[in-house]
Amino acid sequence: MFLKARVESSTIVVECRVRNLSESGVCIDNPVDLSPGKRVLVTMGALHHLEGWVRWAHDGRAGLAFENGHIDVAEARRPRGTVEAVPQHLAGWLSQMHNPYQRRGG
Q1: Burial of 61 (0-12, 13-18, 19+ CB in 10 A)
Q2: Residue of 62, 59, 58 lying closest to 42 (CA atoms)
Q3: What's the rounded Cα separation, in Å, for the pair 21 and 1?
Q4: pLDDT, tens only, 47-85
Q5: What is the pTM of this model?
Q6: Neighbours of 26 (CB within 10 A)
Q7: How far, in Å, CA of 59 to CA of 62, rounded?
Q8: Tens digit of each residue's pLDDT (9 = 90 or more) over 6-20
Q9: Could you tell me how far CA 53 lies from the centroid of its own chain?
Q10: Nearest-CA neighbor of 50 among 29, 36, 71, 33?
Q11: What SS3 class is residue 15?
């Protein structure tokens, strides 16, 4: 599975492949020639709009440093759109509430 990052700056929005990820930054493919010093917002996994800047860029890659220093790497690797598991009701009428074969009154 590849990890993708959405990178936004004042002029571009692009989806990039993540090459390396740490608590303090990320190395991405650089398809739009981001330049060092450029401010960016990064969205990865369950983390949205992480503030940062481009530390370096060469050979089609760029290194981004996060403004607040440390991120939760596990949350960054979590697939986008995932949510916490909801407990299932195992007893009573709630357990049959969404059963398509349940006879409805009427």
Answers
A1: middle
A2: 62
A3: 14
A4: 999 999 999 999 999 999 999 878 999 999 987 654 454
A5: 0.71
A6: 25
A7: 8
A8: 999 988 899 999 999
A9: 17
A10: 71
A11: strand
Instruction: State which amino acid sits at residue 3.
Output: L
How many Å apart are CA 77 and CA 31, to the nearest integer? 21
Here the tokens at position 64 are 């981004």
For the CA atoms of 17, 19, 23, 25, what is the dihedral angle to 10 degrees?
-80
Q: How does DSSP assign 22-84, residue by residue?
A: -SSEEEEE-TT---TT-EEEEEETTEEEEEEEEEEEETTEEEEEETTS---HHHHHSPTT--P
Q: CA distances (Å), 104 to each of 52, 92, 95, 99, in order? A: 55, 16, 14, 10
Task: Give the HSE-up count for residue 29: Cα atoms under 13 Å, Cβ half-sphere.
Answer: 10
